[in-house]
Specification:
With 271 residues, the protein is of the alpha+beta class. The chain has 2 domains: 124 residues, Alpha-Beta Barrel (N-terminal domain of MutM-like DNA repair proteins), CATH 3.20.190.10; 124 residues, Helicase, Ruva Protein, domain 3 (Orthogonal Bundle), CATH 1.10.8.50. It contains 7 helices and 10 strands. The strands form 3 sheets. The protein has a 4-stranded antiparallel beta sheet with strand order 1-6-7-5. A hairpin with a 2-residue loop joins strand 2 and strand 3. Helix 1 packs across helix 7 and helix 4 crosses helix 7. The two termini are 29 Å apart. The chain binds a DNA duplex (16 and 16 nucleotides) through helix 5 and helix 6.
Length: 271
DNA sequence: CACGGATCCTGATGGC
DNA sequence: TGCCATCAGGATCCGT
């Protein structure tokens, strides 16, 4: 479920409540993508100082080190005072003085990793090659133009790779390219400066709008308080194969790119 | 090194 | 109802 908007919505839904909480204990379920990377006793007694986001990672700052949380394809977080017993897919529970933080992840592509600091090898292995934050000031048009000039892959796949700009996943890549009027198969390096400028704006606006809408709830995404998102209701092309384009009425098409579905309007989006 | 495909895992859905 | 194939919001690893 989690692209940048879903992760940011999740972050906002519990960051304030957990700030200052003391970690009491943790419970682990089945293995996630990577091992925790520390003895659980290392976490006990530490405080959670703040919750930040980098790309699709949640960063829980602790007194000594940080926890990196990734939601993978099917992960979601809950934070509540009196949760029931851990369910079948609750694979990480952090008991704190202010409530229980849980990662529920049926497919277990997600992860929770401890790192002694943001510059540590453990953290840099995960964060080191991430691209720029699209909603921040560092997402500069000139840099984006220059970066795309060096990529021969289709623009959709460059966006998904996340080493140029982070946070754009399968839903928002299709949506941003629709807004920009760009065919997803177009090679990144072949885009004109004017079209890259449109894409730059489209990425920012589609992600910002999705955050406002609480993210997208396709099957079961919800924030840490259990609330669904609404962005999927206004998606222009994602999940709309065979339906009329909301702008021109042509039928939305779907293709496969790198084992992922891509949706686009054959008339509004030019190669 | 840049690229594209295979891969991890579970569940939902649709065809027969 | 069962069985099988396909698909799903991600990102790493590996061969070319």
């Amino acid at each position: 479920m989690p692209e940048l908007p879903e992760v940011e919505v999740t972050r906002r839904s519990f960051a304030t409540q957990i700030a200052g909480a003391h970690i009491q204990s943790l419970e682990l379920g089945k293995p996630l993508r990577w091992p925790l990377g520390c003895d659980p006793a290392v976490l006990s007694g530490q405080r959670v100082l703040a919750v930040r986001r980098r790309g699709k990672y949640l960063l829980l700052d602790l007194d000594h080190g940080l926890l990196l949380l990734h939601l993978g394809m099917s992960g979601s977080v809950t934070f509540s005072w009196a949760p029931g017993p851990a369910g079948k897919h609750d694979h990480f529970s952090l008991n704190t003085s202010r409530g229980v933080l849980r990662l529920n992840d049926p497919r277990r592509f997600g992860a929770v990793v401890f790192a002694p600091g943001e510059d540590s090898p453990q953290a840099q292995k995960l964060l080191g090659k991430l691209g720029v934050e699209p909603l921040g000031e560092a997402f500069v048009l000139e840099d984006f133009v220059r970066a795309l000039k060096q990529r021969m892959s289709p623009i959709k796949q460059v966006l998904l790779a996340g080493d140029t700009v982070v946070g754009v996943g399968n839903i928002y890549a299709s949506e941003a390219l629709f807004l920009a009027g760009i065919r997803p198969t177009t090679r990144a390096a072949r885009l004109s400066r004017a079209r890259v400028e449109r894409l730059h704006g489209a990425i920012r606006s589609v992600l910002a709008r999705a955050v406002e809408q609480g993210g997208s709830t396709l099957r079961d995404f919800s924030n840490s308080q259990g609330e669904s998102g609404h962005f999927q209701l206004e998606a222009a092309v994602y999940g709309r194969a065979g339906l009329p384009c909301r702008v021109c009425g042509s039928l939305v098409r779907t293709i496969r790119q790198g084992q992922r579905s891509t949706f686009f309007c054959p008339v509004c989006q030019k190669p």
